[in-house]
Design goal:
heterodimer, A: about 110 residues, 11 strands, globular, B: 6-stranded mixed sheet
Chain lengths: ~110, ~110
């Protein structure tokens, strides 16, 4: 079974703090993704990566950055957390070629910024 | 920006009822349509991936159909059970790496 893990289920941070959300997958997938989920807005793509050290902006990259130094790990960074970044953050991975890009999700991190 | 639309946004049914949801999407550059089930406090899990016009997939009491020419997919649940309560997401893939998700349909089944 594919396993995608996220470093925390719940996180509370203060406005202005630098926040790191970590995601690790164990299936040697090339693609990794970060989403946020807000009521009424569905899953929105923040960033994705299709290879080590490669990244692409999604629909809502403002206020976020990412890092992918190893194939299995994809980090989401909030440079200076703000209250409007309070949300559920989901990480996902998928294989790259010869597939239908089915994504496997982690359990999510519920981040509260106060 | 491409829109993947799902309806209804939410619905509530009684145990034993059958129900269906709709996902509509732009039919151009179609590659695959995904359905996911997202139960509270769990990760979204893939139900179906469909690629061909006219595809029908079935898993137990849940089935899905696909019409790529007119840009829609239906998800059917026969004889709903309380454990079917979840948010059902559809997502479009246009042969790129990323999926475009709809906002989901939240199903609540009462016993």
């Amino acid at each position: 079974d594919v396993k995608v893990t996220q470093s925390s289920r719940y996180l509370v941070k203060r406005t202005g703090e630098k926040v790191f959300l970590e995601c690790v997958q164990d299936m040697d997938h090339e693609n990794m993704f970060w989403y946020r989920q807000d009521p009424g807005l569905g899953l929105r793509l923040i960033y994705f990566s299709y290879d080590v050290k490669m990244k692409e902006k999604g629909d809502i990259p403002e206020g976020y950055s990412v890092s992918r130094e190893k194939k299995e790990r994809f980090s989401l960074i909030l440079e200076s957390a703000s209250t409007n970044q309070t949300s559920m953050y989901l990480c996902a991975s998928s294989p790259h070629t010869g597939t239908t890009y089915e994504q496997y999700f982690g359990p999510g991190t519920r981040l509260t910024v106060t | 920006i491409l829109n993947v639309e799902q309806s209804p946004q939410s619905l509530h049914v009684q145990e034993g009822d059958s129900t269906n949801f709709t996902c509509s999407f732009p039919s151009s550059n179609f590659y695959a349509l995904h359905w996911y089930r997202w139960e509270t406090a769990k990760s979204p899990e893939a139900l179906f991936v469909m690629t061909l016009n006219g595809d029908e997939k079935k898993k137990g009491r849940i089935s899905a159909t696909l019409n790529t020419k007119e840009g829609y997919s239906y998800l059917y649940i026969k004889g709903s059970q309380p454990e079917d309560s979840a948010t059902y997401l559809c997502a479009l893939n246009q042969a790129g790496t990323a999926l475009i998700f709809g906002k989901g349909t939240t199903l609540s089944v009462s016993s």
